[in-house]
Write a structure and sequence with these properties.
Elements: E1 12-15, E2 21-25, E3 30-36, H1 63-79, H2 85-103, H3 111-142, E4 145-151, E5 177-185, E6 192-200, E7 205-217, E8 223-233, E9 236-244, E10 254-260, E11 266-267, H4 270-273, E12 276-278, E13 282-286, E14 289-298, E15 304-305, E16 308-314, E17 320-327, E18 330-331, E19 336-343, E20 351-357
Antiparallel strand pairs: 1-2, 2-3, 4-10, 5-6, 6-9, 7-8, 7-10, 7-11, 12-14, 13-14, 14-19, 15-18, 16-17, 16-20
Helix pairs in contact: 1-2, 1-3, 2-3
Length: 358
């Protein structure tokens, strides 16, 4: 009995396993040559009747590249979710490393590895942006400002932070209280100045690194400039002074003061906090300006560097007519340090007061 034998396929074009394409078979193996189905053949291209087309080769998958791309996509998604950032930061580096390894897989597709690396890099950038947005939002919430007073008109307006009308921010702490205020412009320098009196009514609370913002407005309600100072507001009443640098030729009609709410207060028992005591303030004159000097004594248990001294000058009618600021290099723990500052454009017989701040 004779067994039927199928002849091996000779060289020629055969279906390549992809619809609409043919690949060239050289008689022993598949080549990389492909063409659309129906393309005219040369005279040497033929198929022996009864021969069987060789089985089309299947390109292997890059499993490692697929895994890397999947991890990168998952890490990207988690990096966009504030509460799940840490998961994204774990997955993205792993996906990036697997993507690199996938590139070196021999005879396997490379695009999955490249895509995984690109998605990992973009996901990391997005994660960093989301992280800083979360941090910035938390910081702004901790130091939420509110208007503590408006001056330059007949009334002082008190505003409460949204949602706190019926309940205090912190039961044991109270908001800062705005007292007397003053402002003016130095005719020689053209810069504006301000002085505001703030009282911390909390004996055992301080406002650490508090931002005191003073805004200058003209008669039409246009905001001309904002002066900002950062200080630790201790218990009791004190004065804070500063400058408006961008007022120019405009006229200041009123100022508004903004500062931290009671929720920003930090518990600090008065017996453990420490305070400053100002010594006698003396004045003199040099050319056409007043010189002011004095001492500050600390009862803090540690040395205090760069202690700020704010100075205000009042004329004979008690009106504030000028301000200035200076700093001490160091006030020793339980010790005393001297300070000195010039005051421009004030009457030489003005009465001067000084206040120390951390």
């Amino acid at each position: 009995m004779t067994e039927s034998i199928t002849p091996a396929a000779p060289a020629g074009w055969f279906p390549a396993g992809v619809e609409g394409q043919e690949r060239y078979w050289d008689g022993a193996a598949w080549t990389d040559q492909v063409r659309p189905v129906g393309t005219a053949s040369s005279g040497s291209d033929f198929v022996v009747p009864g021969s069987t087309a060789p089985e089309s080769e299947q390109k292997p998958r890059n499993i490692l590249g697929i895994v890397a791309l999947a991890l990168a996509a998952a890490g990207f998604i988690f990096a966009c979710i504030p509460g799940a950032l840490i998961v994204g930061w774990i997955l993205l580096p792993i996906a990036f490393i697997l993507g690199i390894v996938a590139l070196f897989q021999k005879d396997k597709p490379k695009w999955q590895g490249v895509a995984a690396m690109i998605v990992s890099v973009i996901g990391t950038i997005v994660g960093v942006v989301v992280f800083f947005v979360v941090v910035a939002t938390a910081f702004n919430s901790a130091f939420d400002d509110t208007v503590v007073g408006e001056v330059g008109t007949s009334d002082i307006v008190e505003e409460e932070a949204p949602g706190t009308a019926d309940e205090p921010a912190i039961a044991a702490a109270q908001d800062l209280v705005l007292g007397e205020t003053a402002f003016g412009v130095d005719t020689e320098s053209g810069m504006g100045w301000y002085a505001v009196q703030l009282t911390n009514p909390n004996e055992d609370y301080v406002f650490g690194n508090a931002a005191i913002k003073v805004e200058a407005y003209d008669a039409n309600g246009v905001l001309l400039d904002t002066g900002t100072d950062y200080s630790t507001i201790l218990s009791g009443s004190s004065w804070y002074v500063g400058r408006f640098l961008q007022v120019g030729s405009a006229q200041i009609d009123r100022i508004e003061v903004r500062g931290p709410t009671a929720s920003a207060a930090t518990n600090s028992p008065a017996a453990e906090t420490g305070s400053f005591t100002m010594g006698e303030v003396t004045t003199g004159s040099e050319y056409d300006w007043m010189t002011v000097s004095g001492t500050v004594t600390s009862n803090f248990t540690e040395d205090q560097d760069m202690v700020r001294i704010d100075v205000i000058a009042r004329n004979g009618d008690g009106k504030i007519v000028g301000v200035d600021t200076t700093y001490t290099d160091r006030v020793p723990a339980g010790g005393t340090a001297a300070w000195k500052v010039p005051l421009w454009q004030v009457p030489l017989d003005s009465k001067v007061e000084a206040f120390a701040h951390l």
